[in-house]
Amino acid sequence: MIRRLFENKNMLFYKMFALVSLSVFIPVALVGLLSYEKSKTQLSTVTTQFLEDNLQLNARQINTFLGNVEKESDKMVASRDLQVLLGARPPANPQEEYEFINRMIEIISHEKGFNELYVFPKDIEKYPRYRQLIRLTKIDPTPSFFKQVFDLQNRGMWYHVWDSSLQQPIFIYVRAIRSSYYYEPLGVVAIQIPNNAVREMLSPPSSFKNYMFYMVDSGGNVISKPAAPGFNESLMSDKDWSKAETELSVEGWKLVAAVPKKDLTGTISQIKNFTFLIVIGSLMVITVLLLVIVRSFTIPIKKLVNHMNRVRMGMLQPFVFHQHHKDEVGQLIRGYNQMIEGMNDLLETTRSMEADKRRLELQTLTHQINPHFFYNTLDAIKWKSEKANVPDIASMVMKLANLLRFSLNNGEEWTTVEREVEHARLYLEIEQLRSQRSFQTFFQVDPGILKLKMIKLVLQPLVENAVKHGVNRLPEGTGKIRLTAKRREQDLVFVIEDNGPGLQRDSPLKPERENKGQQHGIGLRNVNKRLQLHFGSAYGVRMDEGRTSGFRVTVSVPVTNEHGSD
């Protein structure tokens, strides 16, 4: 029995048994090997790494915030209106200074963002009233201050100071404003950021209540912390705190994360919880392994089902799989591919038979187009010859001969636009001679398409319908038939229209009408069907049914080549 169990035909069961055994035994063995101290060490390592990642994330947020402030100064530095205002001569009287202040307020209101922004003219002492309005008292705009900022060229500089009124530190970014044309210094722009705005960018992990962020300057002094006390003091000792730090975008500034060491090691209860998490994690691993097991067998089946759907849509391709599979799935796929090959052979045979059937149908449609017209014409010739020696009989016979020659076309199905139009013209001339009815014909053909190829016997049935159902129903001499041939992008378009009574409700001229007892309109139906068999449903005969008088039909065929031949 054991031997039969592990035979090739039971390989599917063998694989499932082996993988399930491994997925259960390995996680249980790992859980048994984990000790109390290993769990505690691993928890500490994972937590430390998590805090380090959190520190890097917050450092990026602080750098982005500081960078946005520096970008905000770009708008002020590049402001042409501000440069013009600062480049003008200082005000000579209070009125001019008031105008300067109003203009400055307008520019700052238009250009500044969400932060407090101030502009110091280079000669600030010449703007006493404006100086009194500036609330930024932490900057003393002395000549040495301006020189320090101007020496930075296009770069800016960050300050950090304690603001007693706000009871918190503030950060100030200063940058020189220069003329775009002469590059001469015109003044200084200062952007003030309160400490709480900076700390809003920080996101400490919620699992550590005592986790704190600090910002320190190049001297290691605290310049930002959660509480106001401690500004410009040194950091706490490393005895009871674990710390990590990273550089900020401002030179010398660092972001420091500090957490009590007892929070990292945790309590016994936390270690127990961690052990519980290990067990849960093992169960998750087992679940993942079981999913792998199921997928290893269901994915080939799923792919096979998807392939079957493509086969149902007509894509008869063999299913590609690894030939070394010897289990039940492999046997199923090999049998399926043999079925696909048999279907391909059967379809190839059917396709060949359908091609022969289509070719015979086209030939039949071509030969049934106009036999009644030729018989009627020959009867008319016979009648005229017996009646009298009329001079136009010779002309009729000659035109009929030409018409027959164009129709036969040496057995070829294709002709040129020039020959097809000439064929229609000969028919109309013969019809006028045969019926003794006078009507006018007009031909408008684009010379550029005369040599292009097209299917023969397309236009003659259409002008025949124009004669029979159009001008023949009008008083003598009033009938008109117009044939227009032109090219529209990659299509040849032929329009045949007459001024007859038009398309009636029960007219047999519609190509889709199948009245077995009527022969009228057979030409239109045949032409439409021939064109759609050749070129698809996008081409064929289209009638203008919205006309109240007259009749117009449009034929469209694709351009098959640029250079036909007679």
Task: Give a structural overview.
- The protein is an alpha+beta fold and 566 residues long.
- It folds into 2 domains: 48-262, PAS domain (Beta-Lactamase, 2-Layer Sandwich); 368-558, Heat Shock Protein 90 (2-Layer Sandwich).
- The protein is built from 16 helices and 15 strands.
- The protein has a 5-stranded mixed beta sheet. Strands 1-4-3-2 form a 4-stranded antiparallel beta sheet.
- Strand 5 (212-216) and strand 6 form a beta hairpin.
- The chain is elongated, with a radius of gyration of 48 Å.
Q: Which sheet architecture does the biggest sheet show?
A: 5 strands, mixed
Q: Give a count of the beta strands, DSSP E runs of length 2 or more.
A: 15
Shape by Cα distribution: elongated
As for the CATH topology of the largest domain, it is: Beta-Lactamase
Biggest sheet: strands side by side, in what order?
10-12-13-15-14
Distance between the first and last residues' Cα: 84 Å
Low-pLDDT stretches: 4-10, 511-520, 562-566
* Main structural class: alpha+beta
CATH C-level label of the largest domain: Alpha Beta
Instruction: Give the amount of beta strand, in percent.
Output: 15-25%
What layout of secondary structure does this protein have?
Blueprint: H1 2-5, H2 11-33, H3 36-78, H4 80-87, H5 94-111, E1 116-121, H6 128-133, H7 143-150, E2 156-163, E3 168-178, E4 185-194, H8 195-199, E5 212-216, E6 222-224, E7 241-247, E8 254-260, H9 261-265, H10 268-312, H11 328-367, H12 371-387, H13 392-408, E9 414-416, H14 417-435, E10 439-445, E11 453-455, H15 459-468, E12 479-488, E13 491-498, H16 522-535, E14 540-543, E15 551-558
Parallel strand pairs: 10-12
Antiparallel strand pairs: 1-4, 2-3, 3-4, 5-6, 5-8, 7-8, 9-11, 12-13, 13-15, 14-15
Helix pairs in contact: 2-10, 12-13, 13-14, 14-15
